From TrEMBL:
This is Delta(14)-sterol reductase LBR. CDD domains: Tudor_LBR (cd20381). It is an enzyme of class 1 (oxidoreductase). The keyword Oxidoreductase applies. Pathway: Steroid biosynthesis; cholesterol biosynthesis. GO terms for cellular component: endoplasmic reticulum membrane; nuclear inner membrane. It comes from Serilophus lunatus. It is a multi-pass membrane protein. Residues 4-62 form the Tudor domain.
Amino acid sequence: MPGRKFADGEVVMGRWPGSVLYYEVQVTSYDDVAHLYTVKYKDGTELALKESDIRSQSSFKHRKSQSSSSSPSRRSSSRSRSRSPGRPAKGRRRSASQSREQKEDKKKAMQETSLALPVLVVRKPSENNTKRYNGEPESTEKNDTSCIILEQKLKPDLEVKHVLEQYSLRSRKDEKKKEEIYSEKKIFTTVKPIEKTSKTKELEFGGRIGTFMLIFLLPATVFYLLLMCKQDDPSLMNIPPLPALESLWEARAFGIFLLWFLLQVLFSLLPIGKVVEGLPLSSGKKLQYRINGFYAFIFTAAVIGMLLYFQLELHYLYDHFMQFAVSAAVFSLALSIYLYIRSLKAPEEELAPSGNSGYLIYDFFIGHELNPRIGNFDLKYFCELRPGLIGWVVINLAMLLAEMKIHNLSVPSLSMILVNSFQLLYVVDALWNEEAVLTTMDITHDGFGFMLAFGDLVWVPFVYSLQAFYLVGHPTVISWPVAAAITVVNCVGYYIFRSANSQKNNFRRNPADPKLANLQFISTATGKGLLITGWWGFVRHPNYLGDIIMALAWSLPCGFNHILPYFYVIYFICLLIHREARDEHHCKQKYGLAWERYCQRVPYRIFPYIY
């Protein structure tokens, strides 16, 4: 085990990730497992750096003095080459010859001096900078300057040539001689831009024990909710009896689920829709994604319409709802095992920042690999919107048809129409704005493991459709004025949700867009801005506020006889509070003092004047 070189509290020079620039930082802690130092910059930004990216201040001062003293010695050497006083003078011709010789020596010495090590002065990013920029931030304070000396340890590449041209460094003779001089002198350092993914330090969901329990608790919760909805009295105190295990599995249901999954894969592979790039990864690479989710929804609607035209009994899904849920759970478990096994061979820079703890159960649950792909087919991106989200709409339609058949209705009930309409709008909006999902934490930060696989394939279609499933067995009659009031609530929630997400996504994509000129923001040391006007100046997570309002509108058509339809609202509030706490912690580490300034400007997190 190698020992640590720098102590906590020591002020050193730390390299800014992805560059050759060093800034003055303070060591705050050291990870014995990952061998990484946590350092704090002057603006409050905290980063984890390797020991090779940290140098003592004394080494910089020593090299600076060496470089500054090299030129005088060479100049004194050139002056010592003057005529010896013991030699006889040979007139003006001799003096002219010596003069030319001195000029040549002086010119040669200047060329040698031009190769001396340059001292770069760079400014540390300032928290007071509010100018929009795309690269590394510039500072306007004089106290944040640090002198940086660059050393060459490898043969110069394109980056070195750029630095040489910037500081007008020239060789003594021709280009070939310059290559030899640089290989011998080794003046500049070449730094690889790709950073390895560090180990996950802070574990979520209760760590290893918590994630192990959730692997069993999540499926049990889904099955319990579905059994409750089947009862005549779905109250909390009326615990449903456990069905026989053999009744939970049906090969036909599993086959239909597999057919559904493969159908969505086929639609996603069609060469239609634009191809866009995602956000840069830690390696600087950008993955490409085909945006055709809305087309897949249209094709799915056409297939379902054809099946109904040929009088396919779609309410079969309602009659075997539990068997379909079990089939989806088994498939998601098998997919999670495959994802974890393949992640063991993935390069370190392709691992997820949140799922690289080294603990098998935790990484299996969170997801070890960030963007698992089979060729160009992105498994996580596909499951995020396609089979589960579109399947949610199909399940709601099946519940609507089942209600009409069971209760001998010529048209669906007003409550069922509201639930189907509200949730259809939500799904269509997500597919229409499919590109926006590329900026979410699910894509940029979380790995693809059991949590997302089960959530996308089981939790979303079978729990989010809970209201429609409930209304089949427990019809609720509402008046038109009540329906109008519920519609207004849903529209308000949707407007907040969509406009807030649009502001955030457009600002992330292109902060210089003239359409966003009226938005104000706080600049951060990472090059990104924090919006302090619009919805993001109202509360810190306005999209979560819109989500909760819409979830309430989806449950209100079910009435108030039982709390079961409102499970989704309670779950959504708990989920978003957890996400909000995770976002707060992540942003505080990422943006430092800039995030503290933002929190002072926007004190409320989700609910204005409450929380």
